Amino acid sequence: MSERLTKNELRRSRQKARAELGKKRKKEWDTAILRRILDSPYFKRAKTILLYAPTVGEVNVLPLMRAARDHGKAVAFPKCHPETNTIEFFLLAPDAKLEPGAFGIYEPPAGSGLCKIDETSFCLVPGLAYDKKGNRVGYGKGYYDRFLADFPGVSCGVLYEEFLADEIPTEEWDRPVNLLVTDRRTIGVSLPVEEKAEHGKGLAFFKDLWAKIWAKMQKEATEPLGERNFRPVHSPPVLVFVSFFFLSLVKILDTFVFNRTWEMVLMIPFQILSFGVPLGIYYLLGGKSIFKRLRLYKIRKTNIWFLFCVLGAMITGSLLFSILTGGISSLDGKFTLYSTFVANMSGNFWSLLFVTLAFAAIPAVCEEIFYRGVLCPFYERFGSGCAIFISALFFALTHFTLPLFPTYLFLGLVLSFTLYATGSLYATIALHFLYNLFCLFGQPYLSDFYVNAGNNAVFIFLVTVLFLLFCAFGVGEARKIYHRYAKEGKKAVYEKSLLLREYPRAILKLLFTPGTLFCLILWLVMSIINL
What we know:
The strands form four sheets. The protein has a seven-stranded mixed sheet with strand order 3-2-1-6-9-11-12. The protein has a three-stranded mixed sheet with strand order 8-7-10. A two-stranded antiparallel ribbon has the order 4-5. It has helices at about 5-20, 25-40, 40-45, 65-70, 145-150, 195-200, 200-220, 235-255, 260-285, 305-325, 350-380, 385-395, 405-420, 425-455, 455-490, 505-510, 515-530, and strands at about 50, 75-80, 85-90, 100, 105, 120-125, 130, 135, 155-160, 165, 180, 185-190, 335, 340. The protein is an alpha/beta fold.
């Protein structure tokens, strides 16, 4: 507002504006404000949250009770003392309910414990109006001004952006808040002295930085799917980088420490660690809700022939890509995992069982849960095309090899497409496992075949024909699958995806994020080392 108004004029105008505010609009603004508060590092590190029971027109902060308790924080509400115009905060037990108190404002019931106020407290302060300096217009009794005069924690004013004033007249007893949160932005007004001293340096700076990163990752992990949103997501590359870090560490340790005996023993825990740590981070980000995105649905019997065709295309296609990039001689040699672990089989039952578990089963489960189960849902808000390509790209990078990069990219594309065609993560795990089995036990016999055939051109021709046949049958089966989905009225989770012409721009934005670039650099370094 441009004109200078007195406090009473501001009070009357804001009360009138609040009374005219529609319920739907108010609910949307309240939700936006609460989201910003939850993202605030000051809310996250506070041990006690001081709330208020909203009166008509005030920002409804009551939903923060559950979020605070879920993170182990204490929750307190004020009790008014009209005889002294002061307030005290009392703890509200999880099973207790607020009761009407002074002025009809709800407060903790009798018998509630007095809240201990200290520097770890985060207080939400209601107001009819605020200015950008944190000055406040209340109801004229000065309750919060008296409380804030000695409050050692962080005080946060909440209001609607439209109610933000240019300047509010102040008196000597008025106390501004430290932060302002509106439905559109967060305004840092002033921090307590101890916060100012540490905010820009030392551990406090890194804690704040990590809190911001973690809050952003949590928001991305729990954001609804199918939104038309061009903002790049940053959480997936961070998770991938964590996995890459452990796989790279294994390679370094393998070079300087391990002998082959120890490698075979330690490769299983290292695989689980490499994918388990980022999966654990993902669980902390999204909680139990992440399991809904994994698509742990059983495989339909009607999809078995489709999966057989896909498996045939994976085997023959990977052979062709290997020949194109490494020549016919590239088919000879032992199966290697992540350019580190080499499959050595002595021929006895226990050796075969261990190799099957370590080189076929565990990689199939870990990689599919991570790349198809976790990364695909992250990128679905950009459309299935982005999800398929980006997850396949990271899958190819995981193996740290330049010559076989096209082969692994092809396999990742096929597996990601299979996920969306069947709607089942179990289907991609099964395909991945069977493909690994072929690489372990089938490819050596295939190598003997082309050596004894004596004609490389005939071998390549036969593999090409088989590849084209499997692709043709697979596409035909995919068409039948989607036809069944249409008859059943089944809708895709990515129904609000991008237009075809928008994909290149979206993919480029997703690729040029700091986390993705770090992953690419690490992959390039490790690939050069492995040459």
